[in-house]
Model the fold of this input.
Amino acid sequence: MFFLKNLKSLFLLIMTTLTSAPILALDPHSFARIDEAVVQKLYLDIKVDFSRKIISGKAQWTIKKGADATAIHFDTKGLTIQKVTLNEDPTAINFSWGIDDVILGHELIIPLKATTVSVSIYYSTSPDAAACQWLESSQTAGKKLPFLFTQCQAILGRSLYPCQDSPGIRFTYEADVQVPTDMLALMSAENPTQKNATGKYHFRMTNPIPSYLMALAVGDIQFQSLGERTGVYAEPSMLEKSAYEFADMQKMLEAAEKLYGPYRWGKYDVLVLPPSFPFGGMENPRLTFATPTILAGDRSLVSLVSHELAHSWSGNLVTNANWNDFWLNEGFTVYFERRITEALYGKDFADMEAYLGMEDLKETLKDFENTPDATCLKLKLDGKDPDDGMNSIAYEKGYALLLLIEKTIGRDALDAFLRKYFDTHAFQTMNTEQFISYIEQDLFSKFPGAEEKIKLNDWIYKPGLPANCPVIVSEKFIEADREYQKWMDGAPAKNLNTGDWTTQQWLNFIDKLPTVISNERMIELDAAFKFSVSGNAEIADAWFLQSLIHNYSPAYIYMEKFLIEVGRRKFLMPLYKEMIKSAAGKELAMKIYKQARPNYHFVARQSVDEMLGWHEGL
Done:
């Protein structure tokens, strides 16, 4: 039974019993028509073919439809559809194609009968499916076997399997996956911990998830337990190092539960991927995908793991209704992440992370000076790739808003509100307007005057940072700044008191380097601290950026190697952006990118291609 307002409006709200959520909204980035028919459960039966770089098989969807529904609409991109059947009848039926859009892909329309409860779509992916990265053995740590991993956020799931590719639509799933017998398959589900002799693996996810949280990885992978409910997967040569780095994961999980309630996904494991993974991490349920660039050797970059773990509440448990509401996922998660790291590593650690986040946000705001609407928390991504909205605005401006709320009403009150928020809306979706209504009724009403002090609408619907943005101070950075000033005043770099510095303090030091600095002083810094050959990717990336700014060419050979090996977009974009500011730099960028591009995931290639004006044949 549906309660419909305006079908053509983006903010159409539909009262429905089709999913676990009480309210679903039409999504501008999906062809799904949820007022007609919506998916509820998926059974995947697929084979992973490394020789042809395709995935093929059957996606059987159990659906719920309205009484008058005559068709169900799916999102696809680059998929070949062999046939479609209804219920358990093997007879193929006719299907049709609808809109074909460069961003959204191709609309698949399947006719329904009055008795239809399931549709089966027999399909195969294309070798260049945007969600899939097929790595040759030479691109892996072990150099013995190829590797496959998927990345479905934001709307790449439709290139992996036919789906209703909207974060506002949730479903449970089971899967049978056939892979080569010398490889292990993993998914965002209940996972095996070792290879079997057949290469066929069965997976089950009993909690409803949105399509972007579907994930698959296949390769030479081993597992090591880290606690009762936590563990790490990695290539054999990376396993020991990964287990050391993530030793505190069980403690993280327990700290998170103390803050905002029980972890509802069973186990929490991390898979360390090859370095071409385009993000720091991806919060796939039960199995976070993580970049090896966080393996610093000193556990100083573990905030990324706490961030992905926090997504088990904000994002995976309560999900943004569509990508215009992305801040509801990420702003909450950054706040939660820093509460976890504060509980485990102290306030100084969390303050350093928050300070660096604010500095990153300020740089992002500069980038959008000519498009200020892009700096609102509530985005307007209709007609655009939602990946365009995945920047520090949602993360750090969202965090700053929650920090302001904490400082206005008190931490205990905000914690109680968030605990109730996650419990009340578990396995449901949330849009910005619903959230505003909820927080006004459930929190601000208890604190007269708080809403006026916070000015929620200014934060959400107006560009930039409001005047009441909290000021973030780090005592550890103040200490580090004293050493920085000594160096600025002429003290030799090797004499600075930096022995116990964390990654965060080094980043703050490097980022503060003056606009004008002699080559001799750059040489001195590099000789003292070995920045160019640092095994810490965060430090190396920050140093390479300064090397480009100051024309410190001795670092370029190391930067080239870094850019060819590492595919994390956070590291790539600033370096390529700085290089193209000059003709010589643009030439260097194109030379490096020609070698590096085959190692990058589609998400990274898409961003760098656009920046460099790259096209095939260059």
Observations:
- The chain is about 35% helix and 20% strand.
- Residues 1-23 have pLDDT under 50 and may be disordered.
